[in-house]
Amino acid sequence: MRLRHLVARGFRNLADLECEPGAEGVALLGANAQGKTNLLEAIYYPVLFRSVRGAADQDVVRFGGSGFHVEVGLTGGKVETVGATYLAAGRRKRIVMDGEDSVRVSDTVGSWLAVAFLPSDVGLASGPAAARRQYLDRLLSLADRRYLRALTRYRAALAQRNSALRQGRFDVAHAFDAPLAESGAEVVRTRERWAAGAAEQFAAEFDCLGEPGAARLCYQSGPGLSDAGAWPAVLEASRAHDRARGMTTVGPHRDDLVLDIGERSLREYGSTGQQRSAAIALKLIEIATLRQAHTTEPALLLDDVFAELDGERQTRLARRLLGAGERQVFLTAPRSDELPPEVGLPRWKIREGKVEKGSGK
Question: Across 2-106, where does the E strand assignment appear?
């Protein structure tokens, strides 16, 4: 899958633009706060129709603007164009695919596929479990719409159950036990199945990136929660605790994707370099998962990924991320001389939100 055309208007500090990157991608150069990351964010927005940085739509609108519009033209996928228009007044969002309005986001998610690696993504290895759950939910929702539907049902049941618990309406809360169990079990099963298949690749990628030590990935959940039949006993055991805290204390919203090195927690004992490599390994697994699910290669968006790496690590990482030219890559850096020689992408520049298209490599 390739991005052939990008339109962005009213998006953060970016000047309104229409551009046509090549099939190989672009290296975007510019000083800090000039809009490099904002452009990557605009490219990614039509993947899930929300900010890759977790910002609310109203916070993505250019300062003083009335809304924004982002559209991508595609080749190699099932659709040719997909985009979104957000109006700050009323906080309304319209999603269009091949010229037709999409009633539900879930029907459009996955039409454009990209995997982004931002500096904050090191938190996948160094941060709390919530970051890894978010990674799983994004990845599996893009790979399998059945998972997205199950996750949506689970979150709805969980919200209703928690609301009733906070209000002390315990009979109402427990009325949501059955839908919580059915959807929650499907979420856990899908996560466990993915983790079992990803464990070997995680160890291999970690080794390929030059990090010493045996790396391990596994999914950690409550006992038997992949089976809906196990939930009644688990919920009964946690009933008093749930009522006391006013929230549901068991389920996939409490689980973790455990990352170890040498049988010790990467989060607690890993070096900064090891944590960075683990996060990159997870992104490479994300690419492989989406490729297998959709039989097409996702684009790769890299924000200043080569910063603070020595020459050997830059070379090793560039070869692994760029591959053999099979994927389209958009990456950012302050200056051209901060990129390893293996990066042969066309250089574009950005200053004060204005993109200047170049042809040099």
Answer: 2-9, 17-19, 25-29, 67-75, 81-87, 92-97, 100-101
Question: pLDDT tens, 104-140?
Answer: 787 888 899 999 999 899 999 999 999 999 999 999 9
Give residues with Cβ within 8 angstroms of 231, minimum separation 6.
177, 180, 181, 184, 185, 225
Two structure tokens written together for 245? 């805290």
- 199 and 339, same domain (yes or no): no
- 231 pLDDT tier (thresholds 50, 70, 90): very high
Give the structural domain span for 342. 1-113+296-361
Tokens of 318: 């560039």
Percent of the chain with pLDDT over 70: 98
- Helix then strand then coil, in percent of the chain rounded to 5, is 45, 20, 35
Question: CA–CA separation, 187 vs 224, rounded Å?
Answer: 13
CATH number at residue 268: 1.20.1050.90
Closest CA relative to residue 121, chosen from 131, 108, 136: 131
